[in-house]
TrEMBL record:
It holds the Pfam family Flavin_Reduct. Its cofactor is FMN. InterPro entries: Flavin_Rdtase-like_dom, Split_barrel_FMN-bd. Residues 19-174 form the Flavin reductase like domain. It comes from Chromobacterium amazonense. Keywords: Flavoprotein, FMN. The keyword Thylakoid does not apply. Belongs to the flavoredoxin family. GO terms for molecular function: FMN binding; oxidoreductase activity, acting on the CH-NH group of donors, NAD or NADP as acceptor. This is Flavin reductase like domain-containing protein. Gene3D superfamilies: Electron Transport, Fmn-binding Protein, Chain A.
Length: 201
């Protein structure tokens, strides 16, 4: 099959892109507004962008309405966020936070999650998450207009929490981590079974 993207409707283009680029890691982002209301939402357009400086990239797509998603609005306002890594035991709770809720809804309470106090930023992390990365906004780049337009948040990592049970021999053990990835539609995946290939020298 071949596709001229100029001839595809937005929904079909979205489905094609997310069906091709997978599995995608999930950034479960916690933020806080100026009133102290916490927001928690997952985003699968996510990866490491740089090591020096340590930058994460999270793209938050525009909704059908012109209003920014609560996560993006809070990041623009406060410049602070926590990226929580979703493991298999947290998949159901993560799915609860996918909904389009009003700005005053606290998804921590909605999903029955505990808050972990952060060291360098105000938003709490998900206490149950095996990894939490405290971040400050480095830059936000916007692309396009209307539904589906991207807002690329470049977030600089300031502090990292790793649960003892996933830290083995000086590194994060991916098998113990059980990180959940996003596939197309409502499907998710794990990083197993995995295989190794030695890099050429």
């Amino acid at each position: 099959m071949e596709f001229n993207v100029q001839q595809l409707e937005r929904t079909n283009l979205y489905q094609l892109l997310v069906g091709c680029i997978l599995p995608r890691p999930i950034a479960w982002v916690s933020t806080q507004d100026m009133k102290g209301v916490c927001n928690l939402a997952p985003f699968s357009f996510f990866n490491v962008m740089s090591v020096t400086p340590p930058l994460l990239g999270i793209s938050i797509l525009k909704q059908a309405s012109e209003r920014d998603k609560d996560t993006l609005a809070n990041i623009r306002l406060t410049g602070e966020l926590v990226v929580n890594i979703v493991n298999l035991p947290l998949a159901e709770a993560m799915n609860v936070t996918c909904g389009a809720y009003a700005p005053d809804v606290d998804e921590f309470e909605l999903a029955g999650l505990a808050r972990a106090t952060s060291v360098t930023v105000k938003p709490p992390g998900v206490a149950e998450a095996p990894v939490r990365l405290e971040c400050m906004l480095h830059q936000c780049l916007s692309f396009g207009h209307g539904s589906g337009a991207g807002n690329l948040v470049l977030a600089e990592v300031k502090y990292i929490h790793v649960a003892d049970e996933v830290w083995r021999d000086g590194a994060v053990d991916d098998l113990a981590l059980q990180a959940v990835g996003k596939l197309g539609g409502d499907r998710y995946s794990l990083a197993e079974p995995a295989f190794s290939l030695a890099r050429p020298v």
